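Working notes for the structural subgroup meeting. M.R. asked for a predicted model of this chain before we commit to crystallization trials. I am recording the input and output together here so anyone reviewing the notebook later can reproduce the run.

Input as submitted:
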Amino acid sequence: MNLYPLLRPLLFSLDPETAHEVTLKMLNVAHVSALGKMIYPAIEDKPVNVMGLSFKNPVGIAAGMDKNGDYIAALAALGFGFVEIGTVTPRPQPGNPKPRLFRLPEHQAIINRMGFNNMGLDHLLNRVKQSSFKGILGINIGKNFDTPIENAVDDYLIGLGKAYTFASYIAINISSPNTKNLRQLQQGDEIKSLIAALKEEQLKLQQEHGAYVPLAIKIAPDLTSDEIGHIAKLLLEFEIDGVIATNTTIAREMIAGHPLAHESGGLSGAPVKDNSTLVVRGLAAELQGKIPIIAAGGILSALDAQEKLTAGASLVQIYTGLIYRGPKLIEEIVKSL
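Returned structure, recorded in token form:
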């Protein structure tokens, strides 16, 4: 039963951040009651092995939907093959001032400048412990806004160390446009130092815990082909397990003339689709199948997902597509595979 077309006008009448919170709470109620079984579609398994992990299907929820790990099982019940929570920072932080989330329905897009608002790593890990979810769980980690960029590696190492035994894989977010100077970590020597430190720590943690937890680096859609090439070489050099392409974009030419085009933050949804696919294609050419790509950005239909997979991705993630299309989108994509 697809109730979302009936619910969407009501949700879109609310402030976007309020609608986000209301939606998650409604999902949770449905999940813990008999209602969930009535309205959630039974999605056929389409198993795929990526990063040494077995996914029940290749469609995941991207980070940002559940920053604190409060709704893991409820989101998984929609039929996702994997759930990625966060971005979480070592210490709690409020994020940027409101308003910080904007809908652009004419473009099937969202602009957000949330700024890693979250309740901190300890809260998230407690929620993971309490969750009944047994599937593939990614934990997306970032740095606190007030940690100087030259000390950013310390925050990522704290995140990696604490989250290691709780995650199926750990995503390293160095591409959000909403934390000052964060994207600098994708450049030149800075990304090399960060990746080297993370890889060294990952191998130490593997020895300590007797288990290997894969690392995936999340990058921006606004990189040049030279920058994509540089990152790909480092991913290969340090044997990083995966790459997520892409985060939101700071570009605005796709929505030029829209009254909200001037709002700062990351643009997601349909306008970022082509740039994200170009990054996936560029990475695929450089990586030659040696490192898997998780594609995100502008997936609002089964066709969009197929485009990403054809470009070289092994898995896809949705976020804005879920807001505009509802849970039916997951079923559509999985059926098309």
